[in-house]
Write a structure and sequence with these properties.
The chain has 111 residues and is mostly helical. Helix content is 71%, strand content 0%. Helix 1 packs across helix 4 and helix 3 packs antiparallel against helix 4. The mean pLDDT is 94. The structure holds phosphoribosyl ATP. Phosphoribosyl ATP binds next to helix 1, helix 2 and helix 4. It is an enzyme of class 3 (hydrolase).
Length: 111
Amino acid sequence: MSEFTLSQLESIVAARATSDDPKSYTARLSRDGIERAAKKLGEEAVETVIAALGEDRRALTGETADLFYHLLVVLRLKGVSLSDVMEELERRTAQTGLEEKASRGSSERPS
Ligand SMILES: N=c1c2ncn([C@@H]3O[C@H](COP(=O)(O)OP(=O)(O)OP(=O)(O)O)[C@@H](O)[C@H]3O)c2ncn1[C@@H]1O[C@H](COP(=O)(O)O)[C@@H](O)[C@H]1O
């Protein structure tokens, strides 16, 4: 099992985002801005969904890796850290998913 963490990838993304290396995809994507990065995130999400509906586990693994990477690029561009997200997830462990859903209030569309 790999010891590599999302936190380590977040650090790589942060360092590469401001790099002037012309070979850096992260730098190019970050320079292009949030609209393009968010669009790429959406594409990767859709590709992950398609892989999830298929039988190829390696395809799902690859698409999920693309999704995590693009999510970290978007979070960095918006100033949201992985630690912010983990804190939110940790807070949610105090209750079940359905309790958390009910606590969101009636302003959201019921489903
Ligand atoms: N994990 C990733 C990673 N996952 C996916 N990608 C890139 O995300 C892109 C996926 O987009 P597509 O499949 O749509 O391919 P594409 O058509 O080439 O993309 P676009 O031209 O539309 O942007 C590909 O170019 C992938 O190489 C990644 N690029 C970088 N990383 C990590 O970020 C580090 C720094 O990367 P650089 O900034 O490129 O040095 C790397 O060492 C990796 O650890």
